[in-house]
Design a protein that fits this description.
- The protein is 0% helix and 52% strand.
- By secondary structure, the protein is mainly beta.
């Protein structure tokens, strides 16, 4: 029912920053949690950030200190600030309403060395 559209990806030099956005067609408050995932060709999608409840966040060790996730309920938008980007961060990133089956179409992040 809720459509998610990611944007903000692109090509950036290592050490640079990007902010990914995920705009929802409806209220994202219906989701108890929302997350950002990455997926390489032939691989399963991997959680890289999640925001839960009233704003608690969780990050895998691989992105702690570099990436942050936030949510603007008034704008029905999920954000992912990506700092100090590394070439290994290159991938397609998707936003997701946890437990909802709702996924965005993905936005490409490419980090050059």
């Amino acid at each position: 029912q809720v459509q998610l559209v990611e944007s903000g990806g692109g090509l950036v030099q290592a050490g640079g920053s990007l902010r990914l956005s995920c705009a929802a067609s409806g209220s994202i408050f219906r989701f108890n949690a929302m997350g950002w995932y990455r997926q390489a060709p032939g691989q399963q999608r991997e959680l890289v950030a999640v925001i839960i409840g009233l704003g608690g966040t969780h990050y895998p060790d691989s992105v702690k200190g570099r990436f942050t996730i936030s949510r603007d309920n008034a704008k029905n938008t999920l954000y992912r600030q990506m700092n100090t980007l590394k070439p290994e961060d290159t991938d397609v990133y998707y936003c997701h309403g946890e437990g909802s089956g709702c996924w965005g179409q993905g936005t490409q992040v490419a980090v050059s060395s």
